[in-house]
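batch_manifest entry 22 of 60
target: Acetyl esterase
source organism: Halolamina pelagica
requested by: lab member K.T.
priority: normal
notes from requester: please return C-alpha coordinates only, no post-processing; we will run our own comparison against the previous entry in this batch. if the run fails, retry once and flag.
--- input ---
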Amino acid sequence: MTDLVLPGPGGDIRMRRYRPDTDGDVPTVVFFHGGGYVIGGLETHDVLCRRLTRESGCAVLSVAYRLAPEHPFPAAVEDCYAATEWAAANPARLGGADGLAVAGDSAGGTLAAVVALMAAERGGPELAHQALLYPATGVEPSQESVQQNAGIVLDESDLAFFEKCYLDSEIHRRNPYADPSNAADLSSVAPATVITAGFDPLRDAGNGYAEQLLADGVDVRYENYPSQVHGFATMAIDAAEDVAAGVGRDLGTALGVR
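--- output ---
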Protein backbone atom coordinates (compact mmCIF):
# COMPACT_ATOMS: atom_id res chain seq x y z
CA MET A 1 0.00 0.00 0.00
CA THR A 2 1.36 3.41 -0.99
CA ASP A 3 -0.18 6.85 -0.51
CA LEU A 4 0.11 9.26 -3.45
CA VAL A 5 -0.81 12.89 -4.12
CA LEU A 6 -1.96 14.18 -7.49
CA PRO A 7 -2.19 17.91 -8.27
CA GLY A 8 -5.84 18.11 -9.25
CA PRO A 9 -8.15 20.69 -10.80
CA GLY A 10 -9.10 22.07 -7.38
CA GLY A 11 -6.06 21.22 -5.27
CA ASP A 12 -4.19 18.09 -4.30
CA ILE A 13 -6.02 14.76 -4.61
CA ARG A 14 -5.00 12.12 -2.09
CA MET A 15 -4.87 8.60 -3.49
CA ARG A 16 -3.88 5.18 -2.19
CA ARG A 17 -2.38 2.43 -4.33
CA TYR A 18 -2.81 -1.26 -3.53
CA ARG A 19 -0.89 -4.02 -5.32
CA PRO A 20 -1.64 -7.74 -5.34
CA ASP A 21 0.91 -10.21 -4.01
CA THR A 22 2.68 -10.79 -7.31
CA ASP A 23 6.01 -9.84 -8.84
CA GLY A 24 4.58 -9.32 -12.32
CA ASP A 25 3.05 -6.23 -13.87
CA VAL A 26 -0.72 -5.91 -13.52
CA PRO A 27 -3.40 -3.48 -14.78
CA THR A 28 -5.22 -1.01 -12.55
CA VAL A 29 -8.73 -0.45 -11.19
CA VAL A 30 -9.49 3.14 -10.15
CA PHE A 31 -11.86 3.08 -7.16
CA PHE A 32 -14.21 5.81 -5.89
CA HIS A 33 -15.63 5.53 -2.37
CA GLY A 34 -19.22 5.99 -1.28
CA GLY A 35 -20.66 8.34 1.33
CA GLY A 36 -23.24 10.47 -0.42
CA TYR A 37 -20.49 12.74 -1.84
CA VAL A 38 -20.28 14.16 1.70
CA ILE A 39 -18.46 11.61 3.88
CA GLY A 40 -16.06 8.72 3.41
CA GLY A 41 -12.47 8.51 2.25
CA LEU A 42 -9.43 6.31 1.89
CA GLU A 43 -9.76 4.84 5.36
CA THR A 44 -13.48 4.00 5.26
CA HIS A 45 -12.99 1.85 2.16
CA ASP A 46 -9.56 0.43 2.89
CA VAL A 47 -10.83 -3.10 3.56
CA LEU A 48 -12.99 -3.18 0.43
CA CYS A 49 -10.07 -1.99 -1.70
CA ARG A 50 -7.84 -4.68 -0.20
CA ARG A 51 -10.47 -7.30 -1.00
CA LEU A 52 -10.83 -6.09 -4.59
CA THR A 53 -7.05 -6.09 -5.03
CA ARG A 54 -6.83 -9.67 -3.82
CA GLU A 55 -9.80 -10.95 -5.79
CA SER A 56 -9.13 -9.14 -9.07
CA GLY A 57 -5.38 -9.67 -9.19
CA CYS A 58 -5.11 -6.01 -10.22
CA ALA A 59 -3.68 -2.91 -8.63
CA VAL A 60 -6.35 -0.67 -7.09
CA LEU A 61 -6.06 3.12 -6.90
CA SER A 62 -8.45 4.57 -4.32
CA VAL A 63 -9.26 8.26 -4.85
CA ALA A 64 -10.14 10.77 -2.12
CA TYR A 65 -12.07 13.26 -4.22
CA ARG A 66 -13.31 16.60 -2.90
CA LEU A 67 -16.44 16.35 -0.76
CA ALA A 68 -19.64 18.39 -0.60
CA PRO A 69 -21.07 20.68 0.64
CA GLU A 70 -17.77 22.59 0.67
CA HIS A 71 -17.11 21.30 -2.86
CA PRO A 72 -20.40 20.63 -4.66
CA PHE A 73 -20.86 19.18 -8.16
CA PRO A 74 -18.85 19.01 -10.35
CA ALA A 75 -15.82 18.95 -8.00
CA ALA A 76 -15.97 15.21 -7.27
CA VAL A 77 -16.47 14.40 -10.95
CA GLU A 78 -13.52 16.57 -11.96
CA ASP A 79 -11.24 14.90 -9.40
CA CYS A 80 -12.30 11.37 -10.33
CA TYR A 81 -11.83 11.96 -14.04
CA ALA A 82 -8.44 13.63 -13.44
CA ALA A 83 -7.32 10.65 -11.35
CA THR A 84 -8.46 8.25 -14.07
CA GLU A 85 -6.58 10.18 -16.75
CA TRP A 86 -3.48 10.18 -14.55
CA ALA A 87 -3.77 6.43 -13.95
CA ALA A 88 -4.02 5.80 -17.68
CA ALA A 89 -0.91 7.89 -18.32
CA ASN A 90 1.17 6.44 -15.46
CA PRO A 91 0.84 2.65 -15.37
CA ALA A 92 4.42 2.31 -14.10
CA ARG A 93 3.43 4.17 -10.91
CA LEU A 94 0.57 1.75 -10.29
CA GLY A 95 0.39 -1.86 -11.47
CA GLY A 96 3.00 -1.60 -14.18
CA ALA A 97 0.82 -2.86 -17.02
CA ASP A 98 -1.56 -1.05 -19.35
CA GLY A 99 -5.26 -1.74 -18.86
CA LEU A 100 -7.73 0.27 -16.82
CA ALA A 101 -11.14 -0.12 -15.22
CA VAL A 102 -13.20 1.90 -12.76
CA ALA A 103 -15.23 0.84 -9.73
CA GLY A 104 -17.09 2.38 -6.82
CA ASP A 105 -19.84 1.91 -4.30
CA SER A 106 -22.94 4.05 -3.67
CA ALA A 107 -22.04 7.64 -4.61
CA GLY A 108 -18.71 6.25 -5.77
CA GLY A 109 -20.58 3.84 -8.01
CA THR A 110 -22.31 6.80 -9.60
CA LEU A 111 -18.95 8.53 -10.03
CA ALA A 112 -17.51 5.42 -11.67
CA ALA A 113 -20.45 5.37 -14.10
CA VAL A 114 -19.95 9.09 -14.81
CA VAL A 115 -16.23 8.61 -15.47
CA ALA A 116 -17.07 5.76 -17.86
CA LEU A 117 -19.53 8.05 -19.68
CA MET A 118 -17.06 10.95 -19.80
CA ALA A 119 -14.27 8.73 -21.10
CA ALA A 120 -16.52 7.46 -23.87
CA GLU A 121 -17.82 10.89 -24.86
CA ARG A 122 -14.50 12.73 -24.63
CA GLY A 123 -12.27 10.12 -26.20
CA GLY A 124 -10.59 9.70 -22.84
CA PRO A 125 -8.93 6.68 -21.25
CA GLU A 126 -10.04 3.36 -22.69
CA LEU A 127 -11.80 1.45 -19.91
CA ALA A 128 -12.15 -2.31 -19.93
CA HIS A 129 -14.92 -2.41 -17.33
CA GLN A 130 -16.99 -0.46 -14.82
CA ALA A 131 -18.07 -2.07 -11.53
CA LEU A 132 -20.96 -0.25 -9.85
CA LEU A 133 -21.91 -1.38 -6.35
CA TYR A 134 -25.41 -0.13 -5.39
CA PRO A 135 -24.99 3.13 -7.36
CA ALA A 136 -27.19 6.18 -6.86
CA THR A 137 -28.23 6.41 -10.50
CA GLY A 138 -31.76 7.62 -11.21
CA VAL A 139 -33.03 7.62 -7.62
CA GLU A 140 -36.63 8.83 -7.26
CA PRO A 141 -38.67 9.09 -4.02
CA SER A 142 -41.55 7.24 -5.71
CA GLN A 143 -39.52 4.08 -6.33
CA GLU A 144 -40.78 1.00 -4.51
CA SER A 145 -37.39 0.29 -2.96
CA VAL A 146 -37.25 3.79 -1.49
CA GLN A 147 -40.71 3.40 0.00
CA GLN A 148 -40.12 -0.15 1.27
CA ASN A 149 -36.67 0.32 2.74
CA ALA A 150 -36.74 3.85 4.14
CA GLY A 151 -35.00 3.84 7.49
CA ILE A 152 -32.83 0.78 6.76
CA VAL A 153 -29.39 2.45 6.74
CA LEU A 154 -30.78 5.25 4.53
CA ASP A 155 -34.12 7.03 4.52
CA GLU A 156 -35.68 9.69 2.30
CA SER A 157 -34.32 12.52 4.44
CA ASP A 158 -30.78 11.14 4.09
CA LEU A 159 -31.12 10.95 0.33
CA ALA A 160 -32.48 14.50 0.21
CA PHE A 161 -29.68 15.78 2.45
CA PHE A 162 -26.92 14.25 0.35
CA GLU A 163 -28.50 15.54 -2.86
CA LYS A 164 -28.87 19.06 -1.45
CA CYS A 165 -25.21 19.09 -0.38
CA TYR A 166 -23.94 17.79 -3.70
CA LEU A 167 -26.23 19.56 -6.17
CA ASP A 168 -26.24 23.19 -5.11
CA SER A 169 -28.43 24.15 -8.07
CA GLU A 170 -31.61 22.56 -9.39
CA ILE A 171 -30.22 22.86 -12.91
CA HIS A 172 -27.74 20.06 -12.16
CA ARG A 173 -30.39 17.42 -11.47
CA ARG A 174 -30.67 16.45 -15.16
CA ASN A 175 -26.99 16.70 -15.98
CA PRO A 176 -25.68 13.29 -17.16
CA TYR A 177 -22.38 13.98 -15.39
CA ALA A 178 -24.27 14.35 -12.11
CA ASP A 179 -26.46 11.32 -12.79
CA PRO A 180 -25.59 9.19 -15.84
CA SER A 181 -29.14 7.81 -16.04
CA ASN A 182 -29.89 11.18 -17.68
CA ALA A 183 -27.68 10.30 -20.66
CA ALA A 184 -29.50 9.96 -23.96
CA ASP A 185 -27.14 7.23 -25.19
CA LEU A 186 -24.94 4.89 -23.14
CA SER A 187 -24.00 2.56 -25.97
CA SER A 188 -20.31 3.55 -26.02
CA VAL A 189 -19.53 3.06 -22.34
CA ALA A 190 -17.49 0.16 -20.95
CA PRO A 191 -19.11 -3.18 -20.06
CA ALA A 192 -20.49 -3.18 -16.54
CA THR A 193 -21.10 -5.10 -13.37
CA VAL A 194 -24.03 -3.66 -11.38
CA ILE A 195 -24.68 -4.86 -7.83
CA THR A 196 -27.73 -4.04 -5.71
CA ALA A 197 -29.02 -5.01 -2.26
CA GLY A 198 -32.55 -6.13 -1.49
CA PHE A 199 -33.07 -3.95 1.59
CA ASP A 200 -31.58 -0.84 0.00
CA PRO A 201 -33.55 2.26 -1.01
CA LEU A 202 -31.24 2.44 -4.06
CA ARG A 203 -32.10 -1.07 -5.29
CA ASP A 204 -34.57 -0.04 -7.99
CA ALA A 205 -32.31 2.78 -9.17
CA GLY A 206 -29.38 0.41 -9.63
CA ASN A 207 -31.57 -2.15 -11.37
CA GLY A 208 -32.97 0.55 -13.62
CA TYR A 209 -29.50 1.68 -14.64
CA ALA A 210 -28.49 -1.90 -15.44
CA GLU A 211 -31.57 -2.19 -17.67
CA GLN A 212 -30.77 1.15 -19.31
CA LEU A 213 -27.25 -0.06 -20.11
CA LEU A 214 -28.58 -3.32 -21.53
CA ALA A 215 -31.16 -1.48 -23.63
CA ASP A 216 -28.33 0.57 -25.16
CA GLY A 217 -26.39 -2.58 -26.04
CA VAL A 218 -23.83 -2.58 -23.21
CA ASP A 219 -22.77 -5.94 -21.77
CA VAL A 220 -23.91 -6.08 -18.14
CA ARG A 221 -23.74 -8.58 -15.33
CA TYR A 222 -26.41 -7.61 -12.82
CA GLU A 223 -26.71 -9.23 -9.41
CA ASN A 224 -29.01 -8.43 -6.51
CA TYR A 225 -28.17 -9.59 -2.98
CA PRO A 226 -31.72 -9.93 -1.65
CA SER A 227 -30.93 -10.15 2.08
CA GLN A 228 -28.40 -7.33 2.22
CA VAL A 229 -28.58 -3.61 3.05
CA HIS A 230 -26.98 -0.53 1.56
CA GLY A 231 -23.24 -0.45 2.12
CA PHE A 232 -22.87 -4.17 2.81
CA ALA A 233 -19.70 -4.50 0.71
CA THR A 234 -17.73 -2.59 3.35
CA MET A 235 -18.99 -4.69 6.28
CA ALA A 236 -17.33 -7.57 8.10
CA ILE A 237 -19.79 -10.18 6.82
CA ASP A 238 -19.64 -13.16 4.47
CA ALA A 239 -21.68 -11.36 1.81
CA ALA A 240 -19.01 -8.65 1.60
CA GLU A 241 -16.40 -11.28 0.83
CA ASP A 242 -18.75 -12.86 -1.71
CA VAL A 243 -19.44 -9.62 -3.58
CA ALA A 244 -15.75 -8.71 -3.62
CA ALA A 245 -14.97 -12.12 -5.09
CA GLY A 246 -17.58 -11.74 -7.85
CA VAL A 247 -16.74 -8.15 -8.70
CA GLY A 248 -13.02 -8.88 -8.49
CA ARG A 249 -13.46 -11.79 -10.88
CA ASP A 250 -15.30 -9.56 -13.36
CA LEU A 251 -12.60 -6.90 -13.19
CA GLY A 252 -9.74 -9.36 -13.47
CA THR A 253 -11.36 -11.10 -16.42
CA ALA A 254 -12.07 -7.84 -18.24
CA LEU A 255 -8.47 -6.72 -17.73
CA GLY A 256 -6.99 -10.03 -18.85
CA VAL A 257 -5.60 -11.09 -15.48
CA ARG A 258 -7.92 -14.08 -15.01
